[in-house]
Amino acid sequence: MNAQYLSDVKINEIIALSDQRYYDGTIKMDVEQALIIMLSITHFFKFAMDYQSEWYTKYEGRMNREVEQFKAEQGILNGKDEMLWIIKNGALKYHICIQALLLQTLFALNGTYYRINDRDYEWEEEFDKIFVGMPFSRDFDLAMIKFLLLPLYNSTHDTRYELNYGGIES
Length: 170
Prior knowledge:
Elements: H1 8-19, H2 31-58, H3 60-74, H4 79-89, H5 98-109, H6 121-131, H7 138-157, E1 164-165, E2 168-169
Antiparallel strand pairs: 1-2
Helix pairs in contact: 2-5, 2-7
């Protein structure tokens, strides 16, 4: 098997495109390939989210005790104290919002920029109901394809694919 190399020109093109905040390209594959890739990415994030939720549930008592101990050490007695502490010290940065990172990844893959600070919270509640509330299953896959992946593909590729499974169009 012959080795294949990326030239300096190609590497620079890749880096230049990745540096664009609002990358205007889209994934260059048909809908089936694109959905397989997007669903695979979704599964990876779903697994990470489920693992994080299981860990938090297992250690919830310990976490709550540590938070209360931290608040006592910092003199935080109520919500106002907490806001003042955040203003003075900055918010704690240990928590990663896996759902937001998933959305950023999928939107970047499709050539659009996910506005993380300008979100549609009603839309996110529906997303969380599927992504957080539903276990891995064919139903989860269909819900993700119908609610997020296919609409994202359609909007970025100027197509009008719809789901038609079990004789039911949606």
